[in-house]
Protein 1
Amino acid sequence: MHSEDLLELAQTSLEDLKARDIRVFDVRDMTSVTDYFLLASGTSDRHVRSLSDKLIQNVKQAGQPPLGIEGQDAAEWVLIDLNDVIVHVMQPRTREFYKLEDLWTVGPAGDMDMVSN
């Protein structure tokens, strides 16, 4: 599966369960670790857990099991490593505290290539 197809599958999985504030960053020119960085918020620990469970189920069914999953027990911040796409599903207060978007905002104008909102 191409990284763009995997990204679309991940984004659709999160949208289906009403993830909030989904942001996708194209980081291919910035790191060799992954192609895309996807951030999404859930409204509660239960919602974050449901979002991550659905995403994991969908990528496994597509034959792309995650390389790693962290944080599912507490469900405050779940990281799902899909190799070409790294997904962070967070509660809003955690996302605001860590401001991961700021880590990937670089360049002369202070912005980067964001794929979608």
Note: The beta strands are 20-26, 36-41, 68-70, 77-81, 85-90, 114-116.
Protein 2
Amino acid sequence: MLSLDQIVEKLKEIAGPRFVSTNPIDKINYQHTLAYGAYKALPDVIVLVESDENGCHPLGRLLRFANEHRVPIVAKGGVGMGISSPLKGGILLDMLGMDKILEVNPTLQYVIAEGGASVYAIHHALRQHGLMLPNYGTYGPSVIIGAMVTKGGIGYGMTRYGWIADMVIGLEVVLPGGETVRLGALANDGTEFGPFQKWVHIPDLLGLFTLSAGSLGIISKVCLRAIEGKREWLHDYCYGFRREQLENVQEALLQLVKGEVVYDIHFTDHWQYFWPMEEGLYDKKQIPEEAWFFLKTILFARDQEELAYKEKRMKAIYEGQGGFEIREIAEKGMGARAQEHGLHGWPDFHIMGPDGWCSSVVRHTGMFAVVSLMYPITFLKLMYDFDEEAKRECGLWDPEHSPQHDSYVTRDLAIKEETFVFYNPYDDEDVARLRQWMGKIQEFSNKKGVVWTAPTLSTKGPYPYERLGNAYDLVKQIKQFIDPNNILNPGALV
């Protein structure tokens, strides 16, 4: 068995000396996740993977070496974000050097990018051709496409089009032994027709690597379906509901998703806007005091005729359930705010910028942790009420912990819930309260049958796996076949 020094020397030989680090400060910086302070795991060594102008990269040799010597290896999903805590140590791959947008085909409406390409950069490249991803992310340039595919990436448009993984029509994946395999549309790359659809002559294998948390292979290329889209086709609205109207919210969401009226709906609550309102980012006089739930809604319409129909239908549903329009949020908390800051009018800046709700909350509270799970819209009231009760019991239901919800409404008639707690990661008592709340959510939600998306499934106990029955047994067999030495993100999937 090789020593760490021997491993580091070999990695320097493969990737280059300046691309390998064992610096303790680097390790701490790279460990950050959406649950910083709650889950800490440091790599033994960090390797930046970089491709040259011809697309050549050392990824295959790195995996072959790690597999031969049984060294755990995890691909980083973007510094400061993502799923990539190295639970078993070993090598952490920084994929940001594989960041090229390889092709945009405006006629057949697809884009091919390297696995480390910024989702933000992919959007920018598509916009030059009047295209957009149907589901577009909201966290700026730090999030990379490979991570979005392997761990259920989300974004605006999820209500109409689904997950980022639903946009994938082709993948190139490097397996643990160093072999490269092309799947779906990319299996047809190199022919005269080229990539154009995910269905080829063999069974669909794309799903084997989507949502796999990097446990079966490292994505080196992604081919994504795009649609025609312009900023002026996206129209922003916000409707409010009182705390006691949650059942009305459920019914409104069901009607809107079933009727395919809306492009995107975000379900948020009072806590998300408490500190932004306190800072004066919003005019309190323009936001009704009784507003507790906020449904930030986007309509996609190419002309006034299409907009008039969708707007009429949306308003009838919201107002029929007792909702009331809140223009202040739509104008300052959605696309318009981004437009003021020169970001081409795409809803991104309002989350993380100096006037964004997240930045405002962090200034008053601290670091945040998020629990992310999915369940049917019909259980929204049950799940929200339980979360409030659990946070009250744990001493977290107050402005200082900003226990907000920022949840996606999906085309599957489901809620992709993002429930937050802001806390002090250096205060052991605060961290204990956070863990207590997470434990309550885990126990309650597991019994109900939620689908977990974050933190990593391995933190949720055995039940989420066991309830899958022999489907999970098959996953374990596939993992054993592809990765017999269990080097790829061990502990994240099996």
Note: The chain has two domains: 101-228, 231-453.
Protein 3
Amino acid sequence: MVIRKAKTQGFCFGVAITLKKAEETVAARGSGNVTTLGHIVHNPQMVQSLEDKGLVNAQSVDDVEAGTLFVRAHGLPVEVFEKANAKGLTIVDATCPMVTKIHVQAEKLRADGYKIVVVGDPNHPEVKGTLSHVPGAWCIQSPDDIDALPRASRVGVVVQSTWSGHGFTEIVRKLSSKYYEVRAVNTICTDTHNRQSEAEELAEQVEVMVVVGGKASANTKHLADLAATKGARSYHIEGPSELEPQWFEGVQVAGLMSGASTPGWLVDQVEARMEAISRRVS
């Protein structure tokens, strides 16, 4: 069996920066003195590694009484920053630059008089943070949601950094047919765009696609879904132990790619396991 790997593998630059900063912060401030709200990345192996080094995970800033609050790549709502400052916590802000760009673009559009539309999952921490920067913004997930939106003359649009590109295009088209003026800023990050393009291209060349990444990772799930739409049998796994030999029986060509929160060494382990399975089922 031939294994074809996507060109883009391992961490995206935003996740790499965040993880490095998290490790440095824990090392400098001591085990148990640095807290994050939610996991730093959607990858169980890296989450465990950071916890082993002393990073504490809390559900709410109300649960953090002292020390350092580490802001993960997704960012945090404005009100959480305000609470942390009021409690006297030291804040280390590792929000991904691409997420910060979305906040800036949304605020600029609002300042220019546009009603803001945020395309994304309203329950995703990144989107919650974006919405906090532009109170009163509308959040939608599909073209169907547009029918229920109120009237407005000028609409400004930003999008979750890990959103599916095709869906965003369709949403902007429908918004343009409803509103007099629509100004859309494509804030899907370059890494996400590249991985999604590679998923579609690679899926057309393989029979089976293995996508490695945390089950809670939105960008990884998108990759697996995209591969499936292109005809490949798609499997979303978190590690090599989840691979099943029957997936590869009779398979000549298999694809392998990863989400933005997946370390390169984990992809290498999955590839090695796929090669071992191939030797047994061939």
Note: Residues 264-281 form the longest helix (18 residues).
